[in-house]
Design goal:
Layout (H helix, E strand, L loop, with lengths): L2 E2 L9 H5 L4 E3 L9 E5 L1 H6 L4 H5 L1 H7 L4 E2 L5 E3 L3 E3 L2 E3 L7 E8 L5 E7 L16 H16 L6 E13 L3 E11 L5 H9 L3 H15 L9 H23 L1 E2 L21 E2 L23 H20 L3 H12 L1 H17 L8 H18 L3 H12 L4 H9 L10 H12 L5 H7 L7 H12 L4 H10 L30
Parallel strand pairs: 1-4
Antiparallel strand pairs: 2-5, 3-10, 6-7, 8-9, 9-11, 10-11, 12-13
Helix pairs in contact: 5-17, 5-18, 6-9, 7-9, 8-9, 8-10, 8-11, 9-10, 12-15, 13-14, 13-16, 17-18
């Protein structure tokens, strides 16, 4: 495996050097016939990487870890985690590698990470491989989330390996090159805590503060400041998921980042018809990670982070628990404030509108959406037209999608709501800036994945063009703003492992 030097970028290996207890040096498996499927040229440029170089044979080898910069030290990271509520003390990167850290145009470091690069010591019974479909899904959805201004890991590239991978059938293998502010997770702290090495736990917390929350490092209790900062970041993140109808699908503690970025786009999906009980993951048989449960699960995960951090919060166990409980009690308030502010923005309410006026309208609208199963994304976008006096598109979403048992929904009820709402002078232009026209609709994602698996990248390119500018309505893209046909049926997603 040859070394390589990118013309202008230097990789750092700080995590690999400083956390040898949590990092196993490892190398990606050689890909027999690497072929670029999609490259995020804008992100590459932000990272100081030359897109032309990345498209070259040596650039492709860098993207999949088959050519390593001299200063890089690829590692498989160790972490623990609660998966569907059950604790696993040793998970780790079973099919992934951290290549290293590089600088971004914003002055902050970014992890460059591989997914599907082969078996590692954490692989257990897995084959360490990934296939084209799930890797393209992560590319589509993560970049869509970025365009929606929701904190997220990003996708730099998907490279086909030329190696067939056995799933239910033989499928073409692929590697995703992922970029993140870091890959520190709640599970990282759970792992450090499980070693009973408080020095390691303290160093990891200090690293998280330096990487993500530098202001907290100056606090009187810097580790409590870290916990509070993660609570705030996750409250904001999950509120943003809820506001766009995103269902993560696998909110295990090893998939909750310390940075507050969305991580892992396995069985995720965007809700179409509004349904608080929406579940898309094929393995979430109890609905633990249903749409409506996401704030509660986030709070539960943060409680697991608190348990891991207890030895750092105070020398006295009882006082440490008290500090953690007090901090965590702020999650629901912060989430509610973030969600309420976001919903007011979606409805175009002016700054300063009091909650006594806004909340009843919001509550009534949510009830209407739930009863009618209206298309969540389309309804809010059409509501911008209603703010301009064109009621019919939004009314059609409410009344035209009402399911049989709620057929009593009538025009007068919706019109009365619109009259009260419009009397508050909603700002239609502001609504259009926060209510997307285009999301990665599930039937279009599946169409793009199937085509890419078969070697046709056209549907992927067209879908990416739509979701890259989600708030700008453009002629000719109506197909990308339309809900799935009834023939698409109930939607289920799979992790791809």
């Amino acid at each position: 495996m040859s070394g390589i030097a990118h013309p202008t970028v230097t990789f750092d290996d700080r995590f690999a050097r400083e956390f040898k207890e949590m990092a196993i040096p490892w190398r990606a498996e050689e890909a027999p016939d690497p072929r670029l499927l999609v490259l995020n040229e804008q992100l590459a440029t932000e990272l100081g990487l030359d897109p032309a170089f990345l498209r070259s044979p040596e650039g492709l080898r860098l993207l999949i870890g088959n050519a390593i910069p001299a200063e890089a030290s690829p590692v498989a990271q160790a972490y623990a985690g609660h998966q569907f509520g059950w604790y696993a003390p040793r998970l780790g990167d079973g099919r992934a590698l951290l290549l290293g850290e590089i600088g971004h145009a914003d002055g902050q470091l970014r992890d460059v990470h591989l997914k599907g690069s082969g078996r590692t010591p954490f692989a257990r019974n897995g084959d360490g491989q990934a296939v084209v479909g799930p890797m393209v899904r992560e590319y589509i959805v993560s970049e869509s989330m970025h365009a929606l201004n929701i904190p997220t890991t990003r996708s730099l590239a998907v490279v086909a390996t030329g190696r067939p991978v056995q799933r239910e059938t033989l499928l073409p293998g692929a590697i995703l090159t992922r970029v993140a502010s870091s890959h520190l997770r709640v599970g990282s702290f759970q792992y450090a805590r499980s070693t009973d090495d408080i020095g390691l736990l303290r160093r990891l917390a200090g690293y998280a503060l330096a990487r993500h929350y530098q202001a907290g490092a100056e606090a009187e209790n810097r580790y409590l400041a870290l916990f509070r900062a993660v609570i705030s970041a996750q409250a904001s993140l999950v509120a943003q998921w809820m506001l766009v109808g995103f269902v993560h699908g696998v909110m295990n503690t090893d998939n909750m980042t310390i940075s507050g970025e969305t991580l892992d786009y396995g069985p995720c999906a965007f809700m179409e018809g509004f349904d608080p009980a929406a579940v898309f993951s094929s393995i979430d048989e109890t609905g633990r990670y249903a749409y409506r449960n996401q704030p509660l699960v986030a709070e539960w995960n943060l409680a697991r982070l608190a348990e891991a951090l207890l030895p750092l919060l105070h020398d006295d166990q009882e006082q440490a628990v008290g500090l953690a409980v007090e901090a965590l009690s702020g999650f629901r308030r912060q989430y509610s404030e973030a969600w309420s502010a976001g919903m007011k923005a979606k409805l175009g309410f002016r700054e300063g509108l009091d909650d006594d006026t806004a909340s009843p309208l919001v509550d009534e609208l949510v009830a209407l959406l739930q009863e009618s199963r209206a298309d969540y994304t389309s309804f809010f976008r059409h509501l911008g037209k209603a703010a301009r006096g064109q009621d019919e598109p939004a009314r059609g979403q409410i009344l035209g999608t009402a399911v049989l048992e709620t057929a009593h929904l009538d025009t007068a009820r919706f019109d009365a709501w619109v009259t009260r709402w419009r009397a508050l002078g909603p700002d239609a232009d502001a609504m259009d800036r926060v209510n997307p026209v285009y999301i990665p609709r599930n039937h279009l994602v599946e169409e793009a994945l199937a085509a890419a698996t078969g070697g046709n990248l056209g549907p992927l390119e067209r879908l990416m063009d739509a979701v890259a500018s989600p708030f700008d309505e453009r002629p000719g893209l109506e197909h990308y703003a339309t809900a799935a046909p009834e023939s698409f049926g109930p939607y289920r997603t799979f992790c791809g492992t």
